[in-house]
Write a sequence for this structure.
């Protein structure tokens, strides 16, 4: 070894999060006995400015060339500690993370002594690996300054328009002949009651007139290749295959209305869905003459009936249609049977009050006793169990409107595979982080907005459209992207070009190319996420995972079982 | 004109996200925060719904990312006092309140706080913990720079003696910083309503009636009680009831709106309680359970089925304190019944209202507020636009929304500001 | 002339008669009900009997029958529900209008006191039934026929006779009020041709008679050139302040005696001494004869008009050992009956509860500023001799005692 290994260890109390269970001073003391350790200390919060300053000072003071932090999870904190090392000139990949919170103080919270022993074991392993770390350099690559937006509903249109206004060209892909999405089927919008058509018209105009937006109508995505900065989207545009290069992709494929086949006597005529009602209201072809009582039923097919989730928008949508009917036809009785009423936020609660004032009557049923629709002598009767009065109320209805949930577009499954981005339990696209990254995917360069992410109304879809535009503009505006150097690399002398690695790679980052020596696997670094699947499948051990080399991992494993300290 | 930049007012999640997106896109950002640290309300929370992520654990890296970003200048303890000009060229004056500790010199060692003899209730901990006159609001505060509470400070001089860096400056004066920015984003968040005026629930009169934010500090491992949920007498409680819509959906004080987050917030607090103390009884009184977000219904199902949280429909009409300080809640579960439930602690999910001082700020910015002091939208379907060109809005200060919505909204406002800075777009969209 | 102007405006604001339930729903904002049950959980009646304001509203909203329901006569109209309702439903008004509707169809509640309503109607015809309304005045009291300030006596002389067996002595309230005013240098106008304010008839749905009474009272007051009317009765005060203006224009000021006295104290024009035997400001702190005093908020003065501080301001001048009951101010428990209708065992339960609250404070004196509260509590106590060791004292009498006037 050319250079003396000098490791500094920093152990975090995380307030009492770790320190309340793990005996941190004992772990520090133990750390000092490990090989190559020249400095060990503990911090109340290693991630606080104070803790970070302390790391930097120690690197300088003790001339550290490896740093190990034992604290929480690399998921949230590794970038921070790496950056801290980098600030004082230490290659960030000479940093090693040991998680003694999730793996010690949390899971063994009732066994503090054993948690402390485990923390020592994990630290010993981490230090063993740290001693063998190698400096790595980050990769950068250029970004094609344009975006592809898939889906031209209101969120996709908004995202496209904002990216275009930010100065970048946009390909807006729509499978239908016309843009506008679900809004094209709506009658009026809450909370202003303005006609959807007029609202949409102005926005379509803005999109069509923008010089940096190229519309791709009647187009379906057939394949997606590439990675952030260099995507290639293959389209079937009116039967003709086209290829578009773009730096980023925004998914805005929308959702559709659930079809309540077999529920509540649904027949599409006298028992219809809210969207069917809106279409009829829009066309004006509903015959009001025979209608005295309108009954709306909420959560039809949702919240445990067919799908599990609450579809967010149906309450407001029903309130809107109920109010519009009542205002236009004061003599008609309009009832909304609901369980919880989702008139959330500022404006919607006011709108709900307006509907009550207008004379729409609301009945609450318990979720375990939903209303029943029956036909009696050619009439429709809705039996509603009144939750609060504990009373069965049969209500005659001339029109029953079912408020059904929004469900994922059937094309989404295919698209998620093409983009290699996940769908959640509810089949909607699954964002990178439920709390902190609502419009990102875990895959760099691909973003998400609108009802493809989950039910949303117009304003919320527009807001998300803008949000996705912001996130997508970042790589476009920078012109380059960084990627982590923790990727795989092929030793071509050992590789026999069998192609197993290519078949298992989930990111399409490795492929066999013909060379003079025969087939050899090659890695596209920017695309590689460093998952290690190729490395573990390579029968010739020709693939090395940077930062997780065989040497490093074997040392770590050895340290796990060999408890006495070996230099 | 020099570098084109954006001013972001408010350093909570929405403001930080807006600042971060802009900075990442290469735009210079001034992030102005009124308190001593960025982080906002989320920093006060223990965990977040529906994933039960530890709030400060996931937020702290974001705070640091923001503070360390080369394109972001964070101005804490500062207020915007004047805005002139128009979109693309707003001349802004910012008042930097004195910390009485030199920002450049202080290294956050905390020695001043250790020697300070003062005991002052810490607002960050909802007044449940005492801090010194030299202080940071919480341990993960960003930036880690102490401040002296000059209103309470007795000027004993101990901190000055002990400060090894000579950072204490008793005579520091307020400073005014001027800058020119192309666009402004407002993200001033919310305050929790003081529920003393809602006398039927006895907050302020009964010992163990507390607010949801107070509970959040109680159950937080880093909070005043180290995560122990205890009454005023220091004993761990055995039964807790949450009451929704306290001061919200309430016409009596003209606050008809729903705060959007409390149903889930209470659900989370009840789940956390059950995780800490499986034997504690938990009840949530609600009117409409607003579980409309992604994964919320499933979260509520888990609370009911896996944790045994009991949901009771109805707004209690009255709470009475018994001699043993137990609380008797009167409620009506159906229209033929009035029942009483005795619990040891009641948590009021109070209305979350636009931050104090928002009217003055709106005046400075020349934008309108609506009847309930939320920033008024020019177009009701575009949540980013205030009534003035070049001034955008993000987060709860525009209307009630939860953390991911605030973050998305922060990004959305950032894109609008990018339109100005990168694309030279000067006008708000005309009803587009 | 004032009276001419008055007659003109009197016709102007005539309301149409109550017609259908949907109009009542709209007028009283009952449509805002979300059935949270808050009203029911706090309603004094619901707590002891099968009564639910929100159920009544919900039935009306869904078009189910409500009118023949006798329970519309049970409501105390105490405003507890209205005070608590966060959605803005005006339930007491809803009930009042339903009663009006029922009355048109000749339905009415069970009157607890015989034909009291018929008597009131008769009293509305003063010329046919000349009354001796001022029998309680004595020589030493200074009153006048015309002047700036009028004292509206209300039903006190009448109650004194009707409830003689309860020993309510309600004329003492009137006497105390006049004596207090005299002491302040005021000789109030009192009217022999005063008529019932109409409160009970109004809340029982008899809007027609109510308007006739209001008309007579306003005309009589105006013809005397009065600028300010002082009330001791919260019901009269509420009726003048909130209900008369619905039909007529009033151009005189209205004030409750507690507010009037509280203003004088603030201005330094009235100094009250602790009542002998009570601890008060300036009294011996450990006097053995200290009495603990509490105050019962009448619904009309409290929740209907928001007057909570004024009586307390005055009482605490006299009695420093003042305590609040468990439910107080806007959360006060009611005295249990209103408008003489449907007084039943549940109403007695409410009274029992309220008096227990008083006992729990250790107070020996419960002050109230409403003669009806006085009557109801005394009635309850008289049937349970020895059970309660407390005295119910009218506010005015309490003050007059402290001033050494009675």
């Amino acid at each position: 070894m050319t250079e003396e290994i000098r490791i500094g260890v920093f152990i975090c109390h995380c307030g009492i999060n770790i320190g309340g269970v793990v005996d941190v001073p004992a772990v520090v003391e133990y750390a000092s006995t490990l090989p190559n350790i020249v400095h060990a200390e503990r911090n109340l919060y290693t991630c606080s400015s104070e803790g970070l300053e302390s790391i930097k000072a120690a690197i300088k003071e003790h001339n550290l060339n490896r740093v190990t932090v034992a604290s929480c999870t690399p998921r949230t904190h590794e970038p921070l500690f790496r950056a801290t090392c980098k600030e004082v000139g230490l290659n960030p990949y000479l940093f090693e993370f040991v998680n003694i919170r999730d793996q010690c103080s949390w899971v063994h919270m009732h066994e503090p002594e054993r948690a402390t022993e485990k923390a020592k074991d994990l630290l010993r392993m981490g230090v063993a690996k740290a001693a063998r770390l190698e400096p790595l350099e980050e990769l950068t690559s250029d970004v094609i300054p344009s975006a592809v937006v898939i889906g031209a509903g209101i969120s996709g249109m908004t995202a496209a328009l904002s990216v275009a206004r930010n100065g970048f060209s946009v390909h807006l892909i729509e499978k239908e002949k016309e843009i506008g999405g679900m809004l094209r089927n709506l009658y009026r919008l809450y909370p202003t009651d303005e006609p959807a058509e007029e609202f949409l018209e102005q926005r379509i105009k803005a999109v069509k007139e923008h010089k940096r937006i190229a519309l791709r109508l009647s187009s379906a995505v057939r394949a997606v290749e590439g990675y952030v900065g260099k995507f290639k989207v293959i389209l079937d545009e009116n039967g003709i295959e086209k290829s578009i290069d773009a730096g980023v992709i925004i998914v805005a494929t929308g959702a559709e209305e659930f079809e309540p086949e077999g529920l509540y006597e649904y027949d599409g005529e006298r028992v219809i869905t809210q969207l069917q009602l809106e279409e009829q209201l829009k066309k004006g072809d509903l015959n009001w003459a025979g209608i005295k009582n309108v009954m709306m039923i909420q959560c039809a097919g949702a919240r445990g009936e067919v799908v599990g989730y609450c579809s967010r928008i149906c309450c407001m949508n029903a309130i809107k249609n109920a109010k519009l009917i009542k205002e236009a036809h004061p003599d008609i009785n309009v009832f909304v049977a609901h369980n919880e009423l989702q008139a959330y936020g500022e404006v919607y609660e006011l709108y709900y009050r307006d509907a009550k004032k207008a004379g729409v009557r609301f009945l609450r049923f318990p979720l375990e006793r939903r209303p029943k629709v029956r036909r009696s002598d050619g009439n429709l009767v809705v039996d509603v169990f009144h939750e609060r009065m504990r009373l069965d109320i049969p209500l005659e209805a001339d029109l029953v409107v079912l408020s059904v949930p929004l469900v994922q577009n059937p094309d989404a499954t295919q698209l998620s595979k093409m983009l290699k981005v996940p769908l959640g339990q509810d089949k909607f696209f699954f964002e990178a982080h439920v709390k902190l990254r609502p419009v990102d995917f875990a895959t760099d360069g691909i973003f998400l907005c609108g009802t493809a992410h989950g039910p949303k109304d117009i304003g919320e879809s527009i807001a998300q459209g803008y949000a996705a535009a912001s996130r997508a503009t970042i790589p476009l505006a920078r012109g380059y992207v960084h990627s982590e150097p923790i990727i795989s690399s092929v030793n071509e002398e050992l590789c026999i070009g069998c192609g197993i690695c290519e078949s298992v790679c989930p990111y399409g980052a490795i492929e066999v190319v013909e060379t003079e020596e025969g087939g050899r696997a090659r890695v596209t670094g920017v695309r590689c996420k460093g998952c290690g699947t190729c490395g573990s499948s390579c029968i010739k051990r020709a693939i090395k995972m940077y930062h997780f080399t065989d040497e490093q991992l074997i040392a770590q494993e050895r340290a796990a079982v060999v408890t006495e300290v070996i230099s | 004109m020099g570098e084109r930049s954006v001013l972001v007012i408010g350093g909570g999640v929405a403001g930080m996200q807006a600042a971060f997106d802009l900075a990442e896109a290469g735009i210079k950002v001034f992030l102005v925060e009124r308190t001593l640290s960025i982080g906002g309300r989320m920093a006060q929370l223990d965990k977040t719904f529906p994933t039960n992520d530890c709030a400060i654990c996931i937020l702290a890296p974001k705070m640091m990312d923001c503070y360390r970003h080369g394109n972001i200048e964070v101005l804490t303890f500062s207020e915007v006092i004047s805005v002139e000009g128009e979109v693309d060229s707003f001349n802004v004056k910012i008042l930097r309140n004195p910390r009485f500790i030199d920002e450049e010199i202080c290294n956050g060692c905390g020695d001043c706080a250790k020697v300070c003899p003062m005991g002052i209730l810490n607002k960050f901990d909802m007044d449940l913990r005492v801090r010194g006159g030299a202080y940071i609001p919480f341990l993960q505060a960003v930036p880690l720079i102490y401040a002296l509470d000059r209103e309470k400070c007795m000027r004993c001089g101990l901190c000055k003696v002990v400060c090894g860096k000579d950072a204490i400056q008793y005579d520091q004066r307020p400073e005014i910083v001027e800058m020119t920015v192309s666009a402004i984003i407002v993200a001033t968040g919310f305050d929790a309503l003081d529920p003393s005026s809602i006398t039927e629930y006895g907050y302020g009169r009964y010992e163990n009636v507390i607010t949801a934010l107070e509970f959040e500090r109680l159950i937080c491992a880093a909070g005043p009680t180290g995560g122990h949920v205890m009454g005023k007498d220091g004993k761990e409680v055995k039964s807790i009831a949450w009451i929704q819509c306290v001061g919200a959906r309430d016409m009596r004080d003209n606050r008809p709106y729903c705060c959007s987050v409390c149903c889930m917030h209470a659900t989370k607090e009840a789940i956390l309680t059950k995780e800490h103390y499986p034997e504690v009884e938990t009840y949530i009184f609600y009117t409409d359970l607003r579980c409309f977000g992604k994964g919320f219904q499933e979260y509520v199902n888990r609370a009911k089925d896996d944790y045994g949280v009991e949901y009771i429909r109805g707004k209690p009409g009255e709470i009475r304190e018994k001699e043993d300080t137990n609380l008797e809640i009167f409620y009506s579960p159906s229209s033929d019944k009035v029942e009483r439930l005795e619990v040891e602690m009641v948590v009021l999910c109070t209305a979350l209202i636009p931050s104090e001082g928002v009217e003055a700020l709106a005046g400075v910015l020349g934008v309108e507020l609506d009847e309930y002091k939320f920033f008024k939208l020019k177009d009701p379907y575009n949540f980013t636009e205030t009534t003035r060109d070049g001034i955008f809005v993000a987060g709860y200060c525009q209307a009630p929304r939860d953390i991911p919505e605030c973050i998305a909204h922060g990004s959305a406002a950032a894109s609008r500001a990018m339109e100005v800075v990168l694309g030279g777009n000067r006008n708000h969209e005309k009803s587009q | 002339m004032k009276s001419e102007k008055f007659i003109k405006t009197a016709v102007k604001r005539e309301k149409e008669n109550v017609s259908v339930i949907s109009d009542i729903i709209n007028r009283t904002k009952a449509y805002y009900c979300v059935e949270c049950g808050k009203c029911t959980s706090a309603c004094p009646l619901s707590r002891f009997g099968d009564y639910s304001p929100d159920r009544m509203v919900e039935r009306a909203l869904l078009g189910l029958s409500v009118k023949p329901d006798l329970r519309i006569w049970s409501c105390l109209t105490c405003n507890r529900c209205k005070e608590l309702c966060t959605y803005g439903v005006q339930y007491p008004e809803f009930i009042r209008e339903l009663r009006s509707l029922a009355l048109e169809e000749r339905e009415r509640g069970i009157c607890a006191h015989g034909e009291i309503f018929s008597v009131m109607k008769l009293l509305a015809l003063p010329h046919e039934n000349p009354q001796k309304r001022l029998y309680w005045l004595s020589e030493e009291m200074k009153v006048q026929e015309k002047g700036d300030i009028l004292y509206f006596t209300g039903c006190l002389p009448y109650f004194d006779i009707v409830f003689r067996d309860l020993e309510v002595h309600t004329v003492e309230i009137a006497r105390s009020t006049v004596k207090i005013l005299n002491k302040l240098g005021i000789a109030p106008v009192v009217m022999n041709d005063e008529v019932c304010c109409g409160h009970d008839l109004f809340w029982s749905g008899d809007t027609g008679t109510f308007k006739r009474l209001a008309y007579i009272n306003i005309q009589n007051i105006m013809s005397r050139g009065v600028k300010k009317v002082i009330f001791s009765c919260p019901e009269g005060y509420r009726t003048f302040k909130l209900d008369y203006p619905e039909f007529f224009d009033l151009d005189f000021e209205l004030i409750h005696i507690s507010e009037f006295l509280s203003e004088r104290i603030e201005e330094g024009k009235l100094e009250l001494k602790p009542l002998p035997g009570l601890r008060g400001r300036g009294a011996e702190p450990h006097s053995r004869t200290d009495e603990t005093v509490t105050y019962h908020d009448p619904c009309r003065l409290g929740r209907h008009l928001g007057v909570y501080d004024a009586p307390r301001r005055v009482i605490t001048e006299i009695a420093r050992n003042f305590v609040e009951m468990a439910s107080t101010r806007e959360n006060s428990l009611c005295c249990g009956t209103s408008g003489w209708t449907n007084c039943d065992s549940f109403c007695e339960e409410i009274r029992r509860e309220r008096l227990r609250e008083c006992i729990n404070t250790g107070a020996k004196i419960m002050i109230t500023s409403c003669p009806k509260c006085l009557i109801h509590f005394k009635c309850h106590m008289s049937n349970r001799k020895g059970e309660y060791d407390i005295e119910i004292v009218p506010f005015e009498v309490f003050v007059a005692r402290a001033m050494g006037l009675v």
Chain B has a mean pLDDT of 94. Chain B is about 20% helix and 25% strand. Chain B touches chain C through 25 residues (CB under 8 Å). The longest strand of chain B covers residues 78-86.
